[in-house]
Write a structure and sequence with these properties.
The protein is of the alpha/beta class. It is built from 29 helices and 18 strands. The strands form four sheets. A seven-stranded parallel beta sheet has the order 3-4-2-5-6-1-7, sandwiched between helices. Helix 15 packs antiparallel against helix 16. It is globular.
Length: 603
């Protein structure tokens, strides 16, 4: 009997049911229809093109942006008994020749390549002589100038349709708004294909945002119950990643720094360690992340403001890919907003591009200051409507909105009377009545607004001004070294023609507290891993992964081990019924994992 998509899902990958949207996309691709699929991270995108690749008569070419992603995908396929190969610059010439021979003689039906390697004249000519049935573009948002992470070499892929008119094209991404989706489809299969938006919601992710006032205290508080888990902490600069990693290691955690300034060998070693070990925190710039297929990342924290809603969504999407609960946190401050505005204004000569990026940043700031369900605000950006989620900070602890018109007028008056020439620090000194040299030299101690806000702390006013900037009441002029300027809406408030409501600033946002290293270490020592069998299964998985030099999830994902620990299968037939245990993995790993289960049962 000819295999079907459902039989391949079970007999090769070891899964019993498709996830939402997978079957529809697979059927369209198998029917020869071009598809752009937008699916949430962790939604099972790779299955959607790997099953058609296994079932179709010809060769499938998968275009991927990163060597690490290609290697992980190939290792995962090979672990399931599927002969896939990759060709990239990180391989020896002999290995590349062997991989190509496997494709040419039909031993391997799936080949992974970067767009640069694929679009070389020599490779295109070589592929033209083979039976290519499908091209798949992974991380497809990279093809669009309207999206984030645009890569010029991806745009060359628009030539493929004309060169291979009989091939089916699939494109996959987790991050694309309406304009970006239309641009991707227009470049890959103009007017001739389907755009399937499976949805953006990741209900297993707990969302949280806070004003940054003491990042060390706030970070330790966030990590308090996560000492035995893996996660990612994103920082804006290389220096900051090193500082944060050093701080966490001093506090008794296992933290690794990762950034583009490191030696390539060191970066590879750090990434391999993160992928293979448990309870490791990766502190990284955005140089780390795309294509990281580690399903059991339990948290993602941002210690600086991301560049856009799309970038933020993509980065938090690396948590909880196994579908179980994960948590996110973002800290941001005025310096982050200033730096982001500066980066945009320094990014080339295209004024249209700069305007789009400023608008994207505005949308992210609106998300940060949301007073309704945060997930609802996030998904509305992608034109998806949901009810309040009950799993974000604004749902769990709804913010109180209060009238801040008088305080806003104090700040606006101080900015206006000082010539709209100073940053937040100086304006706060004016309203708090600080007698420093800068104030006295400029005569700002004689202004009517001098000292009018002395009853509130510096931290309070910093938080208040952040909300004014996020709300479009104030703007930060990068050309004038980050000075605050009054917008049209701000002028209306200053003249009494408009009110200003703000999120009430809680006392703990302006109160400095320190957590002892002893308490932090005690926090890390605590483990929520009450199931000893699961811990033993993970330990055996890690041994096997290290021996094979592959990420641990390639052996088995966490969900499969959790099901093993729960069902405690007594023989190979029972183990075969566990989701994620396909025939090849049953043959390779079945006996060793059964021995762990049996030994635990015997005590």
């Amino acid at each position: 009997m000819k295999p079907t998509a459902k039989s391949v899902l079970h007999d090769i990958f070891g899964y019993h049911e498709f996830r939402p949207g997978q079957e529809q996309i697979i059927e369209r691709l198998l029917g020869g229809h071009h598809v752009l699929a937008v699916m949430p991270t962790g939604g099972g995108k790779s299955i959607c093109y790997q099953i058609p690749a296994i079932l179709c008569d010809g060769i499938s070419v998968v275009i991927s942006p990163l060597v690490a992603l290609m290697d992980d995908q190939v290792a995962a396929l090979q672990a399931n008994g599927v002969n896939a190969v990759s060709i990239h610059s990180g391989m020896t010439r002999d290995d590349q020749v062997d991989a190509w021979q496997a494709v040419r003689n039909g031993t391997a039906k799936i080949i992974y390549m970067s767009p640069e390697r694929l679009m070389s004249a020599r490779m295109l000519e070589a592929l033209s002589s083979l039976n290519v049935c499908q091209f798949v573009v992974d991380e497809a948002h990279c093809i669009s100038k309207w999206g984030t992470n645009f890569r010029p070499e991806y745009e060359m892929l628009s030539e493929l349709k004309q060169r291979f008119p009989l091939c089916t094209f699939g494109a996959f991404t987790a991050t694309a708004d309406e304009a970006t989706r239309a641009d991707i489809a227009g470049k890959l299969f103009p007017g001739d294909g389907d755009i399937i938006v499976q949805g953006f919601d990741r209900p297993n992710l707990k969302l949280g945002v806070a004003n940054k006032n003491n990042w060390k205290r706030q970070l330790l508080s966030f990590l308090e119950d996560k000492g035995d888990q893996s996660g990612i902490i994103y920082c804006l600069s290389r220096k900051y990643t090193e500082e944060v990693a050093e701080f966490l290691n001093e506090e008794g955690m296992t933290a690794i720094a990762y950034h583009a300034g490191q030696d390539a060998v060191l970066r590879k070693a750090n990434q391999d360690r993160f992928m293979s070990e448990s309870a490791v925190t990766m502190v990284a710039t955005i140089a780390f992340g795309m294509g990281i297929d580690k399903p059991d990342i339990r948290y993602v924290a941002h210690l600086n403001l991301p560049s856009s809603v799309e970038a933020y969504y993509q980065e938090i999407g690396r948590a909880g890919r196994d579908g179980t609960a994960a948590e996110t946190m973002m800290l941001y401050g005025l310096d982050d907003i200033r730096m982001r505005r500066m980066f945009i204004d320094q990014d080339g000569e295209d004024d249209g591009h700069k305007l789009r990026e400023h608008k994207r940043l505005d949308s992210l700031l609106a998300y940060c200051e949301a007073s309704q369900c945060r997930r609802k605000t996030l998904l509305a950006y992608f034109d998806e409507q949901i009810e309040a989620c009950g799993n974000c900070d604004t749902c769990i602890t709804p913010p109180v909105r209060v009238d801040g018109t008088q305080h806003a007028q104090m700040i606006l008056s101080a900015i206006y009377r000082t010539g709209q020439y100073f940053g937040a620090a100086h304006i706060i000194d004016v309203v708090r009545g600080s007698q420093n040299q800068k104030i006295l030299e400029r005569g700002h101690d004689s202004l009517p607004t001098f000292g009018v806000g002395k009853d509130h702390s510096k931290q309070y006013w910093q938080a208040f001004i952040r909300q004014m900037v996020a709300g479009g009441i104030l703007t930060i002029n990068i050309q004038k070294f980050g000075c605050l300027e009054i917008s049209a809406a701000g002028r209306e408030i200053l003249t009494g023609n408009r009110n200003f409501e703000f999120r009430e600033i809680p006392a703990d946002a302006v109160r400095e507290r320190r957590q002892s290293k002893k308490a932090a270490r005690a926090m890390v020592a605590h483990s929520s891993e009450d199931d000893g069998l699961l811990a033993q299964l993970k330990a055996r998985r890690l041994e096997l992964a290290k021996a094979k030099k592959v990420p641990a999830y390639v052996v088995f994902p966490d969900n499969t081990l959790i099901e093993m620990a729960s069902k405690k299968p007594a023989n190979l037939d029972a183990l075969a019924m566990v989701s994620g245990v396909g025939p090849k993995k049953l043959e390779d790993y079945g006996e060793t994992f059964l021995s762990v289960i049996n030994d635990a049962a015997m005590g």
